[in-house]
Amino acid sequence: IINEPTAAALAYGLDKESKEQTVLVFDLGGGTFDVSVLEIGEGVFEVKSTSGNTHLGGDDWDQRIIDWLVTEFKNTEGVDLSNDKMALQRLKEAAEKA
């Protein structure tokens, strides 16, 4: 079993590079945003540093988009969608696709 940053580096074929390199791997998950620094050389991956924020994942981004859309719609159309469950669900689906 390998960690996510190493898996991402392998997925992009960074293990096939002939030169030693330092790479920055971003992992924007549903609930977290993680960043790792890896050193890669001769087929060896070494995680030098990793950090994350549990309040900056994709779900948080989606919610910010929804909030912005609700505010913009209220400002332009004069209709507050914040209590309309069906409208919020449609906005959520659209935000996730965006």
CATH homologous superfamily assignment of the largest domain: ATPase, nucleotide binding domain
What percentage of residues falls in helices of 4 or more residues? 40-55%
Q: Spatial order of the strands in the main sheet? A: 1-2-3
What is the name of the CATH architecture of the largest domain? 2-Layer Sandwich
Mean pLDDT: 89
Reading off the top of the CATH hierarchy, the class of the largest domain is best stated as Alpha Beta
Global morphology:
rod-shaped
Order of helices and strands: HEEEHH
Please give the domain count: 2
CATH topology of the largest domain: the name is Nucleotidyltransferase, domain 5
Uncertain segments = none
- Based on helices, strands and strand pairing, what is the structural class? alpha+beta
Termini separation comes to: 32 Å
Count of helix runs: 3
Largest sheet: 3 strands, antiparallel
What is the C-alpha radius of gyration, as a whole number of Å? Answer: 20 Å
Per DSSP E runs of 2 or more residues, the count of β-strands stands at: 3
